[in-house]
Amino acid sequence: MGMRISSLARSKGIEFRGGTRYKGRGVINTRQEAGMNGAKIFIGWALCLSVGLLGCERYQDWRAKKVAANPNRPVQADDRVIENTPTTTRPKDDSERGEAFTLTQNRDERAKVDRPRPRPAGAIGSAVLVINRESVTAEEVLRRARPELAAMAATFGEESYQKRGGELLTEIIRDLISETLLYQEIAARITEEQDPAVQKAVDKEVNQIAAVEAGGSTVLLDKMLGEQGSSMDDLRKQLRKQIVTQQYLREKMRTKVIVTREELWAYYQNHGDEFVAPGRVHLQLIELDAGKGLDWLHANDSEKGKARSKVEATVKTIRERLGKGEDFSALAKQYSTAISAKAGGDLGWLGRGGYRIRALEDAAFGMKAGETRGPISIGEKTYFLKVLEIRPTRQVSFGEAQDEIRRRLEQEIYQRLVREYLAKLWNKSQIGELESFWSECNSRLPGYSAMREKGLKKKAEAKGK
Which pLDDT band, with edges at 50, 70 and 90, does 53 fall under? Predict the structure, then answer.
């Protein structure tokens, strides 16, 4: 069972009363890795925290040391550099925003944020990292890492677990620092009138997570969190930070996330191969399964022979009736053993790779509209096919592609702006000794055997659902 945190960017996500939603999608990063099916109650940050920090010398220096120490590590998102995208069009009128839950408007009317002077960095030991006036502990890092460490251990060998575990700690430390710096920047800007809206949004998120992962029970969700070294309070605190920070960043970056028509056209011209509508066929099918209603593994030869003879007789009947021009749909409803029989054998529109039986898919894409083909025997099943319509592969027009291109470019710009903003926060903040803190966290990395046992248990539970 994989745990996923729903987001503001999703169509059914959180949005505040009268607020606006950033049109870009996919900006929520819930830290998922292909091939891992372990439970992951990990609250990831949308804020592009996992994409690197452009311009942050402190972070890049630390990152460079870790890359040099492990040259064979998998390529990470932090290794990429996204070039600046020019933005020249006028933003939309702010009047469209309505009475939003807003952290950036009317700043002059609010009290200035009281920021205490930062304490000396690294003053309280390597198990604690001081970030301005707040601290992050090694245990907090490990608590976030454990769900993924269990999934890693269940998927990889011990050596790979150790390497990937260290890389995971680097990412989590980075995210925690960025998260803390952001929240320090904006927490005091939430007014008493806005706080109930934040709490309501947190409640909604908790209920959505419980509905997806715990059958709607917050009690069960709390238990699940406890098994992973977390708690409902930790979840609520993290969601609060996520919601407030995302809303703040959207409002702060909104007027800068702009794309010109010229940029849309240039992207379309340079990425034309990405905007191709693949060929599709509208397919009907009749399936005749000799093993339907028969325990084929334990049936004797006589029983199997009778079942095959019955299918052969049905095949002959269908061929004769199709030859007379009878309706394919009616024959499918009468004879087909497939689930699609009730729909007259209609499988809808299929693209390449869209059907489970490759031989039938290949046959369908080799047919003409209106053509019927069969019988086609595969194992103990026999099939008849009819192609109703064909949509050939075609180039998607610029007009059709504009919305998707705009979404991609807006997201790239938004991510770049957030990275640059985070880099400024890192550079102006006082942060403890990163390497010694990472080393302390890494020295406490849970043992491989224990994590593997937990990960395999979660995999087994997921398969049983």
Answer: low
Domain holding 332, by residue range, is 277-395
**162 and 305 part of one domain:** no
Asked if 173 and 217 sit in the same domain, the reply is yes
Q: Is it the case that residue 162 has pLDDT exceeding 70?
A: yes
Write the CATH number for 374: 3.10.50.40
Per-residue confidence (pLDDT) for residue 24, from 0 to 100: 30
> Do 363 and 328 belong to one domain?
yes
- Region 144-153: mean pLDDT is 91
- pLDDT score of 252: 86
pLDDT in tens, 297-331: 888 999 999 999 999 999 999 999 999 999 999 99
Residue 40 lies in a domain: no
Count how many domains the chain has.
2
Sheet holding 346-351, edge to edge: 346-351, 280-289, 381-391, 372-378
Residues 255 and 334 in one domain: no
Query: Has residue 286 got a pLDDT over 90?
Result: yes
0.70 exceeded by pTM: no
List, for residues 39-51, the tens digit of each pLDDT value.
233 333 333 444 4
Same domain, yes or no: 452 and 352: no
CATH code, 189: 1.10.4030.10
Q: Is 244 found in the same domain as 108?
A: yes
